[in-house]
Model the fold of this input.
Amino acid sequence: MAAADVLAFHEFEEATTLLAETPDAATTSQRDALTSREHVAVAVGSGYGAPEVEDEGDKTALLQEEKPQPRFWTFDYYQSFFDVDTSQVLDRIKGSLLPHPGYNFVRHHLRNRPDLYGPFWICATLAFVLAVTGNLTLVLAQRRDSSIHYSPQFHKVTVAGITIYCYAWLVPLALWGFLRWRQGTREHMELYTFLETVCVYGYSLSVFVPTVILWLIPVEWLQWLFGALALALSAAGLVFTLWPVVREDTRLVAAALLSIVVLLHALLALGCKLYFFQPLPLEHVIPAPQATPLSPSILPPTSARSMTTL
Amino acid sequence: MAEAEESSGELETATPRPLFAGLSDISISQDIPIEGEITIPMQGRARELDRSTLNESVRHTIMRDLKAVGKKFMHVLYPRRSNVLLRDWDLWGPLILCVTLALMLQKGSVDGEKDGGPQFAEVFVIVWFGAVTITLNSKLLGGNISFFQSLCVLGYCILPLTVAMLICRLVLLAGQGPINFMIRLFVVVVMFIWSVVASTAFLADSHPPNRKALAVYPVFLFYFVISWMILTFTP
Done:
C-alpha cells in the first residue's frame, strides 16, 4: 500500500506537511534524484495562488534516474532549455498577453520547464521592430513635412538591441538575486529559478511588439493610449507572477519591490517611445553644406534629395 | 583437392562416417594452392590518384570552385527539394555574396552624418552573426543539420536579395520619387519571399513538424532585416 500511497493524490494536510518538510520542492534544480519532487501550492482563501496539486514525483524521479544531469559546459545542457514546441511557445505568449489575478505565469504556463527560446527571440524581434518602425515614422513624417531630412539611422538598431537585451537579462538577475537574499531570512518562500524569472520578463515584453507597430499611427493621444495599455498589461503580468513569492515578506519590502519592478518597466516603455518615435522637426535640420554657396555643384542635388520624398 | 573430393565421395556412398573426417588427411601447403597476387586490379583509379590536385593549373582549380559555386547559385534561384547545398557545402558563395552586399550598402559618407546607413562592418557582422545565431538556434531545437551546412544554406539564399540590391541601385540612378519607391518596394518584397522560400526548401526537413515554425521564424527575421537595409538605402 505504500506504493499506492505515493501514486495517489495527496490531501491538503499531507500537502502542507510536505511543503514544510521540503521547502525547495517548488523549484526545479539539479538536486538529488531521489528527493521527492511533489509540487504543491496551498491556497489561502480565494485570493492569489490557485489551489492546484500536481503530482510529478515519480515521473521526474524516473527521468532523473535514467540519465545524469548534463554539465553546464556541454551542449546538451543548453539544449534542455530549447525543449519546446511551437504550440507551447504560442501558448506562453498568449498567457503573458492576458494576465489576470490568481494566474501565475510560472505555474500555469512554464510548469517548471522554462525555455530560452521565447526570451531571446522576443527581445530580438522587439529590438528590430523598434528600429524599423522608428525609421518608418521618419519616412512618414518626411512625406508630410519635406523639410525633415531622412536618413536610415542604422545606429538605432544597435542602441535598441543593447537596451532591450540588457533590460531583459540584467533586471531578472537583480530581481532573482534580491529574492534569494530575502529567502535567507525565511524558509518557506517558494522561489523561482533564474531562468523562470528571465522567462517571465521575456514573455512579458511580447505585448510591446504589436504596440510598437501600432505606434506608427501619427495621432499623439492614440500613441500614449496604446503605450499605457501595453504597460498596464505587461506590468500586471509581472506583478501577478511575483505576488505569491513576495507576499510572505514584510509589507514594506513587498510594496517597494513591486513598485520598483513596475517603475523600471514604465521607464523602458517611455524611453523607447521618446527615443525612437520622437517628434522630429527641430532635430533634423538640413545639414550645413546646403547653406554655403561655395559649392554650387553640390547644392542642387542635396536640395533635390531633401525636397522629394523617398 | 583430388583426395578431398574422393573422401567426400566416400562420405556420400559409404556407411555414415563423422563429418569432416577426411579433412585431417589434407595438408594445406601441398594440396590447396594459396599462391597468388593480392593487388586490386583497378588500373584506372590508380592513375587518378597519382594526379593529385596539387599539380593542376591554378586556372583549373579556380574554375572548379567557381563552377561549384555557380551550380549552387542555380539551385538557389530555382529552389526545389534537393540536397546539393547540404551535401557539398562550401562557404565561398556566402562570402562573395556578403562582401558584394556590404560594399553596395555602404554609404559614401559624403555628408559626414552620424546617422547614416550601415557601414561595411555592420552589414558583415549582421550577416555572419545572424547566420551563426540561427544555426545555433536550429541545433539547440534538435535539428539534424550540421553547423556548416546550415551556414552554407543561409549564406547562399542571400543571392536573391543581392540581386534586389543591384536592381535597386540601378533604379535609383534614375532619380528618386514615389514611383521609384514603389518599384523598389515591389522588387525587394519579391526577392525577400524568394529567399525565405528557398531557405525553407533546404532546411525544412531537418526539424520535426511540431518545431518547424520555431526554426523558420528566425530565418524570416534575418532576411527581413537585410531587406530593410536594402530598401532604406539612399545614395
